Amino acid sequence: MNDVVIDFSKVHQIKLFGITIMEPSTVLSSLVMTAVCIYAFIHLNRLGRAHRMYKQIQYFFLFMAIATAIGGILGHGFLYMTGKVGKIPGWFASMIAVALFERAAIWHIKPLLQRRNGLILGWLNYVELTVFFVLTFITLDFRVVEVHAFYGLFLMLFTIEIYVYKKRKDPGSKNIFLATLMGAIAAGFHALKFSFGDWFNYNDIAHIPMSLSIWFYYQGARHMTYYGEEMIVPEEVVASEGEA
User: So where does this one cross the membrane (predicted)?
Assistant: First the structure.
């Protein structure tokens, strides 16, 4: 188990109304991501798209909002009260979010594949989430969550959207490529632990491109076309083609 003793006296903190909040800059930058996720969830809901592909993307943003809020508040701000246990709900919520967007991408590509291959991808999605849930619960190691995000967003989602774009030039795929780039930049800052001091550390810096990544995922969700028998072309895509 990944047990690390933290000297909380050395972690930057503030007192607000007599309550100690650790790493306040990281709490704030996490809540910025939460705000972007909530905005995306609300606005996608207003579009009223009922197909499972769109609904799964929509709930990606809901679970990512839960993950970033819990991660910022319990995983950083009140870590001295909750300990590592306080991080686990946010970790699980983020893994559910990744699996949902990955599943939406599977719906995106399914009409372009043989039925058997689409079914395999769908079952792989369930097995993957189960395995990573178990590994996270056993190890309590955030690196397992990071590996799952890499697998789901980089290896699966990004690869699927490359295929869809090559076949149909889907405008949503282009936004997902930009989201992936922003995610890679965020991962690089985090891995290198690039910081400008305690009050603007690698977590805070990484949260900036992560917020942009979430925004581009939202744009991708708005513009993705479903290519099933009853093709669903978002109104935004139809309007842009009309202007062209």
Answer: 27-47, 59-82, 88-106, 118-138, 144-164, 176-193
